[in-house]
Design goal:
Chain C: Keywords: Cell membrane, Membrane, Transmembrane, Transmembrane helix, Transport. The complex is a heterotrimer of chains A (271), B (255) and C (272). Chain A has 271 residues and is α/β, with parallel strands linked by helices. Helix content of chain A is 46%, strand content 23%. Chain A has one domain: P-loop containing nucleotide triphosphate hydrolases (Rossmann fold). Chain C is elongated, with a radius of gyration of 22 Å.
Chain lengths: 271, 255, 272
């Protein structure tokens, strides 16, 4: 049984269907990229997994998260699944963090929750150790300063690292990353991608990576689903999708990305 | 004669924290210039100075052969006809309550431009590839890419010699992005482009000249091909190496 | 549903406005003459009964509608105008001047409208329709100014403003053709809501004896006078009270409906 199994997922608003039947499986240690342009339904698909659709939208079909049906589950019963089985990191870490709370306190919350779940007593020293451990896991070099800092006092890359640390501290087995590097600079993006890459390998996480940026997805994902207007138009091995796409829409996207890259590589090759 | 010549330009919104440190650059007719930098590099501020929206604390900006004095009304009116902006966010760059026709007519009237306004609007709409009946509609009837075309059309009304574009395609979807880059490339026949971006691929696609900006300093400048094929500065090297790339089909066969 | 709110609001406000207009041309009785016995209960001749001077109460309540609407419209117009001008100026002012203005507005808003109004009345020759409008309008302008200042700053941060500057427009032209059209719908709704509060403020002022002098008594004054006889002639309190509620409720419905309508327009164009 897969960690995550989607069968014929649909998402609809009151008047129309926005996602028309998406199916896939995802297992520990796998990295799946969900690619599409704005309005393709890629984020809606990912948020249905967490039961986090915007108000007014509802999902149909089947989403099995660790064997448990998510569709139609009351929100109250979703809460234990969020964080413990699956966690999300968002595009804008600024809005994912509470601006009026020190980063250390925000990171403490999931650590406490996890301890309470396991029935462990958490001494202040153990909490501190745990905070340091997770900040170290996301390669933050000056954890002391970060723990004391407010969200606005640190860079966008560091905010995203703290958000990832918070997601990991719950001990999830599936990490959903919704455009996690889009708001970051190129150099920071590379570091965050390396980080996610390492985490998947070392923690045996499953990664669902949502992005419109083809090169970024090609960097992180083994398998790719291409979405267009709420449909999964192509699904397959990342290398195959990016080098020998079968569907016309995918070909168009890949050709556009290759064209931009070709301009760059021409310049690089010139003596 | 250079279109723009910046000599040792320094600037800070707050004197204690300068954003630009003695930046010098030149823009020649027909040689699109890319300004590459990450957030906090001062690239957008540099563009604001070139637009004449603020004056440098130190150094001189020459445009069209004379010093840009933003306190002189007449000099600035001339500068508006010489250089026009295109912004990043297609949703913020058009007034949501103003019909496209009026938005395009506005600079024509305010700058006292020659020619029939109706014909000029028809000309710029055609230049950016939008239907002529766009004039009766408001911005919300258009997609992000179309809005960006409208913003370019508004800039073209003044028949400027320089377009100063701040990340003009980074908010657009990939397929739209490529089409807007094609448009800017076509327009480069008539108008010289200064393109500010964090994306080295887009700069490489459009600009034969390049300045790399880091923390308000120009760390590298020259021909784009020279810099990209043989980067001298660590920062440029780091930017190039951190760029994620698609696998190329030949790599597939080579494996 | 929102359309329903708008219609109910229009109906209630329309009713009050109709009555107010009618009083300019026709009244059931002379408001200053004795029309029957004192404190009579409602009858066909006097639907709302008579007051303790034997004057027709319906006539008085009708005149009250005129007073309430005059003060409401006057104060809303004055407050809206001054508030919008001040707010736009504050948004454009230098940092220090803007901070000063913002602080002043905050202090003004912290003052209860009524207290401010009493100060104005005390400072002028005495209570009249004009002082009531001035007092309430000034108090209202502070609230509108604060809103306008924030809205204007938000618009000024948009790229289309920079584009307009690069198109050679001066700040004056930018305010007229870009800032005002973008902030006015919101300001209009805020002014409409303040209009309702102005009507209540006027009633409170005259309840305290600081409103318009008789014979043009407002609802607040009627309420105050009927206080002592509320058990013998309950109509004296019920009639002006209901009238006041109908107008204020109507204005609030209208403002809510207006807000939905302005939002709906955005949605409509989006759907096209």
């Amino acid at each position: 049984m897969s960690l995550l199994r989607l069968r014929d997922l649909t998402v609809h608003s009151a008047s129309r269907e926005l996602v028309h039947g998406v199916s896939f499986d995802l297992d520990a240690g796998q990295r799946l990229g969900l690619v599409g342009e704005s309005g393709s339904g890629k984020s809606l698909t990912a948020m249905s997994v967490m039961g986090l659709l915007p108000p007014g939208l509802s999902a149909g079909g089947s989403v099995l998260l660790d064997g448990q049906q998510v569709i139609g589950r009351p929100d109250r019963q979703m809460v234990p699944l969020r964080g413990t089985t699956a966690a999300v990191i968002f595009q804008d870490p600024r809005s994912a963090l509470d601006p009026l709370m020190r980063l250390g306190d925000q990171l403490a919350a999931p650590i406490r929750r996890r301890a309470a779940r396991d029935g462990r007593r958490l001494t202040p020293a153990a909490l501190r150790d745990s905070q340091m451990h997770w900040l170290d896991r996301v390669s933050i070099r000056d954890p002391e300063r970060i723990l004391r800092a407010w969200p606005h006092e640190v860079s966008g890359g560091q905010r995203q690292r703290v958000a990832i640390a918070m997601a990991l501290a719950c001990g999830p087995r599936l990490l959903i990353a919704d455009e996690p590097t889009t708001a970051l600079d190129v150099s920071t993006q590379a570091e965050v991608l390396d980080l996610l890459d390492g985490l998947v390998r070392e923690e045996r996480l499953a990664l669902l990576f949502i992005s419109h940026d083809l090169p970024v997805v090609s960097r992180i994902a083994d398998r790719v689903i291409v979405m267009q207007n709420g449909r999964a138009v192509e699904q397959g091995d990342a290398m195959q999708i990016f080098t020998a796409p079968r569907h016309d829409y995918t070909s168009g996207l890949v050709a556009a990305a290759q064209r931009l890259q070709a301009a760059l590589e021409d310049a690089e090759r010139r003596p | 004669m250079s279109l723009f010549r910046l000599s040792d330009v320094s600037f800070g919104y707050d004197p204690a924290t300068p954003v630009l440190h003695s930046v010098s650059l030149a823009l020649e007719e027909g040689e699109n210039l890319g300004i590459l930098g990450e957030s906090g590099s001062g690239k957008s501020t540099l563009l604001r100075l070139m637009l004449g929206l603020a004056a440098p604390d130190d150094g001189v900006i020459e445009a069209d052969g004379s010093v840009l004095d933003i306190t002189s009304r007449r000099r600035m009116q001339a500068h508006r006809r010489f250089a026009q902006p295109v912004f990043q966010d297609p949703y913020s760059s058009l007034d949501p309550r103003m019909r496209i026709g009026k938005a395009l007519a506005e600079p024509h009237a305010a700058l006292g431009l020659d020619g029939d306004v109706g014909q000029e609007i028809a000309r710029v709409l055609q230049a950016v590839g939008l239907p002529q009946d766009s004039t009766a509609r408001r911005p919300r009837a258009f997609s992000g890419g179309q809005r960006q075309r409208i913003a370019v059309a508004r800039a073209l009304i003044a028949r400027p010699r320089v377009l100063l574009a701040d990340e003009p395609v980074s908010a657009l979807d990939l397929s739209t992005r490529v089409r807007v880059i094609d448009l800017l490339s076509d327009l480069s026949q008539e108008v010289t482009l200064v393109l500010v971006s964090h994306d080295v691929a887009i700069v490489a696609a459009l600009c034969p000249r390049l300045v790399v900006l880091q923390h308000g300093r120009a760390v590298e400048a020259g021909a784009t091909a020279d810099i990209l094929s043989d980067p001298q500065h660590d920062y440029t090297r780091m930017l190039l190496s951190s760029l994620p790339r698609l696998p190329r089909p030949e790599q597939e066969t080579a494996r | 549903m929102s359309r329903g709110t708008l219609w109910v609001g229009l109906l209630l406000v329309g009713l009050n406005a109709g009555v107010a207009l009618l009083t300019l041309f026709w009244l059931p009785y002379d408001p200053t003459a004795m029309a029957g016995g004192r404190l009579q209960p409602p009858s066909w001749a006097h639907p709302f009964g008579t007051d303790r001077l034997g004057q027709d109460y319906l006539t008085k309540v009708m005149i009250g509608a005129r007073i309430a609407l005059s003060v409401g419209i006057g104060a809303a117009a004055l407050g809206g105008l001054i508030g919008t001008c001040l707010g736009v100026l504050a948004a454009f002012a230098r940092r220090s001047a803007d901070d000063g203005l913002a602080a002043t507005l905050d202090i003004l808003i912290a003052f209860p409208t009524l207290l401010l109004a009493m100060l104005v009345v005390a400072a002028s020759e005495g209570a009249s329709l004009g002082t009531a409008i001035l007092a309430i309008g000034l108090a209202m302008s502070a609230i509108i100014a604060r809103l306008v200042r924030i809205l204007t700053k938000r618009v000024l941060a948009q790229d289309y403003i920079t584009a307009a500057r690069c198109s050679g427009l001066g700040w004056g032209r930018i305010v007229v053709s870009h800032v005002l059209p973008n902030i006015l719908p919101t300001v209009l709704v805020a002014v409409a809501l303040q209009f309702g509060l102005a009507v209540i403020a006027e009633a409170s002022l005259s309840f305290l004896g600081l409103g318009t002098p008789p014979p043009n008594a407002s609802w607040g004054q009627l309420l105050q006078q009927a206080q002592s006889t509320v058990f013998r002639a309950p109509m004296g309190v019920i009639a002006p009270g209901l009238a006041l509620i109908s107008l204020v409720l109507g204005i609030n419905f209208l403002a809510d409906g207006l807000r939905d309508l302005l939002d709906a327009e955005v949605d409509l164009e989006e759907a096209r």
